[in-house]
Design goal:
mainly alpha, globular
Length: 236
């Protein structure tokens, strides 16, 4: 007679997302360091592919982290959230089961703000770092994911005819530009997609999640990765 048994698993994928983002960013850096040895079109495509992949994984990390917080709130096997008061955990779980902020109609940052509201904690201040930087990062991700080409004037004998793109206005001077981009290339997507851009994006995203868990007085879920010799998140 065979005993009946079952295996039940639940995977928190935010760890994979942030590690993938860092791995891809490091690869972009290596391509950039070897720029003098190779400056052809294929190398540029490789570089921008690493940066784009890292961007998607970074924003994926942000959303996975907040979804895991809500999903794990009543999980008896997830000790971190038990540090919240039972009534707060019950409220957060009840709202999640009602679809708030579970459905896609809630933006990533709205989910973080709702979690803080339900826990009676201070909200992120809009317009300042890290909230504002993550907001801009997500805008770049959205522009890549839902890409729409546009005519852009980058050089002209009449300066008033030169186009300043919306993302360029918001992101100007926040990070170094793509060293493989040519002078006439537009800011987005060509010059924007650089190692310095995704380094800024990863640091901003990690800062936002760190501040989120600090405000809730919970352990930072990826803290064990920060100084781990094998799974470290060092971008250099």
């Amino acid at each position: 007679m065979t005993d009946n048994y079952e295996i039940t698993l639940k995977t928190n994928f935010s760890f994979n997302q942030i590690q993938s983002a860092v791995f891809l960013a490091r690869n972009a850096l290596q391509v950039e360091k070897n720029k003098n040895n190779s400056n052809d079109v294929v190398t540029r495509i490789q570089y921008e592919s690493y940066v784009t992949g890292a961007l998607l994984c970074t924003v994926g990390y942000l959303e996975a982290t907040i979804n895991e917080f809500f999903s794990n709130i009543k999980d008896e096997n997830y000790n971190n959230n038990k540090r919240l008061k039972p009534k707060k955990r019950e409220l957060i779980n009840s709202m999640w089961e009602l679809g708030i902020p579970k459905s896609a109609k809630y933006s990533i940052l709205e989910k973080y703000q709702i979690a803080l509201t339900l826990a009676d904690k201070n909200l992120f201040k809009k317009g300042v770092s890290p909230y504002q930087d993550v907001y801009l990062l997500i805008q770049v991700r959205n522009a890549i994911t839902h890409y729409e080409p546009e005519w852009v004037t980058t050089e002209s004998e009449f300066p008033e005819k030169i186009t300043e793109q919306a993302l360029e206005k918001k992101l100007k001077n926040k990070f170094g530009l793509n060293p493989f981009a040519n002078s006439p290339d537009p800011f987005f997507p060509d010059k924007c997609l650089s190692y310095e851009f995704i380094k800024w994006g990863i640091h901003s995203s990690m800062k936002l999640t760190e501040v989120f868990f600090e405000e809730l007085d919970l352990n930072y879920p990826i803290s064990w990765l920060l100084n781990n010799e094998i799974y470290n998140l060092n971008l250099e």
